[in-house]
Specification:
By secondary structure, the chain is mainly alpha-helical. About 70% of the residues lie in helices and about 0% in strands.
């Protein structure tokens, strides 16, 4: 049984929210004692006919301006509309997503003598949550208790959902726990909000646990909850698990899938190259009378393009148009990306011209794809031209745009222009990310500007940047190729000392560098340490070391490590094969070497 004291205790664990909210939102404005000159307390004199006409007028509203005008008319009506009539108008504003306007009119209604009910204040909380101010909802909850109303499950569920949307899962779970403690029974909506919240932050395991709890409590689990979990599983790469849940939902629970269900599963399957299963689901979907939408077609176009099957993507787009679905910017971007991937830039530009012709406005992603494509084929001038087009269209280049152009200048052997562009980013208020730095460093090293590269890297070390293993690998590689092995060793040791998670690529760079300098014993020691440090040598590790041994004419150890490599199931790569053929030609009488090569 719920008592006033038990309900009030709901707020105790969330006092810090109420304190924050009260400093920003004044609840007193919702229960002002002043009254509008024409306002009177609703009475039974309101006729059924006039109220029906009033409600029909509210239902016929189409714009927010019309709603505000009608609200002002309601304040002058006699007989005065009841709070339920005002709530109908506020609900219209919420449905049309005019949350700030709804709150403003509710405040105005209060100041005009309209006595709020719990439904009104639930609307206020809902609006605050949609505006990203769920903390203010606790302040309104305090007001509800202060004026003698009792929160409903809807009141608390709205706050729970708001916390989940804001990724505040700790407080959301805490509120659900306190709901139960004071006698409120969490329902399907409560658990659904929690499940969606966990999926949103990528914690699919916790979402599945709550799904099981919903089933155990006999809560109704709807398709939206299943869709959220299946989408989370697909994003985690667990497509088979998502399909199992799909089967359970449909066969065991009798819940019919929606277009959202099929879209997330088809996308998951396409991401992992499981085309046949994706096509099967598409056919099943259409047989059930669920026709593909723009998102379905865009998923398929994107999947084909990522596999390099642009002709297949074009067929999907043709079918899409035949079905009456107009491609959107996402669809066009995927096709442009597919052509850029194949370096077919003229075709990519034709798609760009087509989308403009069909009044589909290109996005930053569109221009970034095209600029990257032109830079890949070393036509930076066309990339710069598109940058100008982008700005003329009122779009602002982002960090990705600048990073692409910086990389493009590096590729065409213009590192100083790349460096100038890199520093110009800050003038436009953009902060280079680690990928930008990696591109610049790589370009400087490749153009043999060792001093400039190291100076930039040292400046990065002194800054607040959290340098990762990718940046360090770029510098390691540049140092080794530049003959600065001692510098590379110092950096490698510092990476270990800082606790960076060094990958096989880092070790392989160092093994190659040591071999180039003829330090084969040191290279062998490092290869052995890989296993000890929890980073087992991979195919590249053995190939790089064997190549170093062969180049230094260490035939005995070459045989040893080739046997080890083959024994581990690692194939011999093209560079190792070339060296083996060379030594085979020079050692035709060596039967052991000949046998090893044949193996």
């Amino acid at each position: 049984m719920r008592t006033r004291a038990s309900i009030s205790s709901l707020l105790q664990p969330f006092q810090h929210f109420c304190t924050l909210s009260n400093s920003l939102l004044n609840p007193s404005s919702f229960h002002s004692s002043s009254t509008h000159s024409n306002a009177v307390t609703p009475t039974h004199t309101t006729t059924t006919r006039s109220r029906t006409h009033l409600l029909n007028s509210i239902r016929s509203l189409e714009t927010v301006d019309a709603a505000v005008t009608f609200f002002n008319q309601m304040l002058t009506m006699n007989p005065f509309p009841c709070v339920k009539d005002f709530n109908s108008l506020f609900t219209f504003l919420v449905k049309t997503k005019h949350y700030t306007t709804a709150i403003s009119l509710i405040k105005h209604a209060y100041s005009s003598g309209v006595n709020a009910d719990i439904y009104t204040l639930n609307i206020v909380i809902n609006c605050l949550c949609h505006l990203g101010h769920t903390a203010f909802g606790f302040s309104v909850l305090g007001l509800i208790l202060k004026i003698g109303l009792e929160p409903t499950t809807v009141t608390l569920n709205t706050i729970v959902n708001g916390l989940c949307v804001e990724n505040n899962m700790v407080q959301a779970l805490r509120l659900v726990h306190h709901m139960e403690n004071v006698g409120y029974k969490p329902n399907s909506y409560t658990f659904g909000a929690i499940v969606n919240g966990f999926c949103k932050i990528g914690d699919t395991k916790s979402a599945i646990l709550f799904l099981k709890e919903m089933v155990e409590r006999n809560c109704e689990v709807n398709v939206v909850v299943y869709n959220a979990i299946m989408d989370g599983l697909c994003k985690d790469g667990l497509v088979s698990e998502a399909l199992s849940l799909f089967s359970e939902m449909r066969n065991s629970k009798g819940i019919e899938p929606t277009i959202v269900t099929y879209n997330c599963l088809i996308q998951g399957l396409c991401e992992f190259g499981r085309w046949k299963e994706g096509a099967s689901l598409l056919n099943e979907m259409m047989q059930k009378g669920i026709m593909p939408d723009v998102q379905t077609f865009s998923i398929l176009v994107d999947g084909f393009c990522k596999e390099g099957l642009v002709s297949g993507a074009k067929c999907v787009m043709s079918f899409m148009v035949h079905m009456g679905e107009e491609p959107n910017v996402v669809t066009y971007n995927s096709l442009i990306g597919g052509y850029c991937l194949r370096n077919q830039m003229e075709e990519a530009m034709k798609v760009y011209d087509l989308m403009v012709c069909r009044n589909c406005l290109p996005s930053v992603v569109t221009y970034n794809s095209l600029i990257h494509g032109w830079c890949k084929v070393k036509d930076v001038d066309k990339g710069i031209f598109l940058l100008g087009e982008m700005v003329n269209q009122g779009l602002y280049p982002d960090v990705v745009t600048w990073t692409i152009l910086v990389g493009g200048f590096c590729e065409v052997g213009k590192p100083l222009a790349a460096k100038k562009l890199f520093f110009a980013m800050k003038e436009y208020g953009l902060v280079p990310n680690l990928q930008t730095y990696a591109v610049v460093l790589d370009g400087l090293f490749k153009c043999h500007l060792y001093f400039e590269a190291i100076s930039l890297f040292r400046a990065m070390e002194k800054s607040d940047l959290d340098l990762d293993v990718v940046i360090c690998n770029v510098v390691l590689d540049g140092m080794c190729k530049g003959g600065k092995l001692n510098d590379a060793r110092e950096l490698f040791d510092s990476m270990l000392a800082k606790g960076l998670k060094i990958d096989a690529y880092s070790y392989n760079i160092m093994i190659r560098g040591l071999c180039w300098e003829g330090l084969l014993d040191d290279a062998e020691d490092l290869l052995m340490k890989m296993e000890e440090n929890g980073c087992p040598p991979n195919r590249c590790s053995y190939n790089v070391f064997v190549q170093g041994l062969l180049r230094n004419c260490d035939i005995s150890r070459s045989r040893k490590y080739l046997k080890i490599m083959i024994g581990k199931g690692f194939p011999v790569d093209a560079n190792t094969t070339k060296l083996l053929i060379f030594f085979y030609s020079a050692n035709k009488g060596d039967n052991a070497f000949q046998e090893l090569l044949q193996n």
